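Worked example (supplementary).
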Amino acid sequence: MKTLILGLGNTILTDDGVGIRIAQKIKEKCKNVDVSEASAAGFRVIDEIIGYDKLILIDSIKTGKAEPGKLHKFTFEEFKKTLHHAQPHDISLFDAFEIIKKHGDKLPSEIEVYAVEVTDTSTLSETCTMEVEAAIPIISQKIIDEQSLFK
Amino acid sequence: MAKKISIDPITRLEGHGKIEIFLDDDGNVKNAYLQVPELKGFEQFCVGRPVEELARITPRICGVCPTAHHMCSTKALDAVYHVKPTETALKLRRLIYNAFMAEDHLLHFFFLGGPDFVVGPDAPPGERNILGVIGKVGIEIGKQVIDMRRRLRSVITHLGGKVIHPVCGLPGGVSKGLAEDQRQAFLKVAKDAVEFSKFCLQVFNDIVLKNNTYLDLIVGDIFKHQTYYMGLVDENNKVDLYDGKIRVVDPNGKEFVKFEAKDYLDHIIEHVEPWSYIKFPYLKNIGWKGFVDGIDSGVYRVAPLARLNASDGMKTPLAQAEYEKMFDTLGGKPSHHTLAFHWARLIEVMYVSEELVQLLEDKSITNPDIRNLPTETPDEGVGVIEAPRGTLFHHYKTDENGMVTGVNLIVATVNNSAAISMSIAKAAKNLIKNGKVNDGLLNMVEMAFRPYDPCLACATHSLPGKMPLIVNIRDNNKDIVQSIRRD
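After joint prediction of all chains, the assembly is encoded as:
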């Protein structure tokens, strides 16, 4: 099964870069896995994921209901439902996904979304806030184990 | 009792913004503004770094137009190092930039602005999205849009290194040349892009211009502002997106000033309001008269329609013909009709596509001289480029070792910030009366700012926990008296 790890975010906006930082960490440890990163959304990243069987998205999230650094996990279906209810007019990655599917391209049949609870996504910094920074090695290892990426 | 309506977040707008509409005691619109979150500490972030890094950092400001930032930054680096790029490097930069402009404009027209136009201003919210657009124009056309964008992006990927954040620009040139087989392959893409541009303009003609409801909206008063217009022009005053002088015309179309990028601070100054982080640039030599239009107000506009207004024409024949048709239809130049930004955007797609063909038909673009090495001591430089959303300035200062000591950017959308607020206020005044607010009216207010394709330079991409469209109407104690929610 061809898998892509896609880190999303912006590495110069404090916690916003956590998804990319984790993806980079995974790449360091697992040379055989395809890892990509993007500081964009929707149609601007969709081309990256064409041709894969499985997609693991890693991003940041602000629910405000969890401690910073906590890892949330969503299935594509439940996340899609949330977003469709929330943003009927936006072009989310998930909308882009639907459109590309209609286009006939091969998209991953299996998608998992990891999101790290964050606090600051508006200060320019290449370092995450303390709790989030501390969580990066732990979360990257957790994803490696959970997804059996060493295989 | 004053009331405030908040529309938050703005749907389909890149970045995270918020519209604030203030009502008076009678429930009529008093003022309306676009609010944006602040990115904190950009200058401090850059100071002390090698200046070359800015060509990689500044594109990160924005997930929407990174190529524009990269190219503008590269031009600023040319200036800082006092080095002129080789002829081949200039051609390659234009090649990348035109491909980017075409794909970005297409994305906006079909996927962001399209739902307003193609689906219809009165269509139910559930259809006002890209799936609605595809439903209207047909799945085959949707596929063509996706294919065309993908092929244009392949040009950027090949030459830029990375499609989302290109890394090819160096002071004095570019990092990678073009091989002959690639030139031939990309020439095919460019020729197809010209054909596709014709098709897009035909779609606009058939769906929008032939529909009197749309045409009335475009030329109506609700979406009209008589402002100054700014854009880059070449030596013949033709639209140029990559280089040239910055030309400003007054609301009557007369040239007000033409200046070089390095002199921008002599002509542009920023007004600050206490309620917004965003700054409001205006023409220094006219002055700030508030959020008003007219020849005495320093408010100016940038982006596609402004560029066409600020020029004497297009450099390529098909785009020129469309330019003439647009101004004929709209009743002359300059055109003050904000919704015509969508039309002008398509004319620019035609122009950049035609120029792509010209660049790629010239075999000298494969020459190996892709860089002049800088030999001067770096100090200070200004770069300017026409980003999809308007004139973009990068201004860097360094010490003699090339370490950054100062940075100033005027990003494209910021130039339009006063005009965007004015457009929202005007639409709101016409469409929200006596406290009556409904979803259709709010759509029209949103239509007022979408032509500008505002990008709020706020590149956070955190997954939204919950982002419904909420309208809160508040009294003067900031208590919510009515809440409208669009899930």
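Two points are worth noting when inspecting this output. The radius of gyration of chain A is 15 Å. The beta strands of chain A are 3-8, 34-38, 54-62, 71-75, 110-117.
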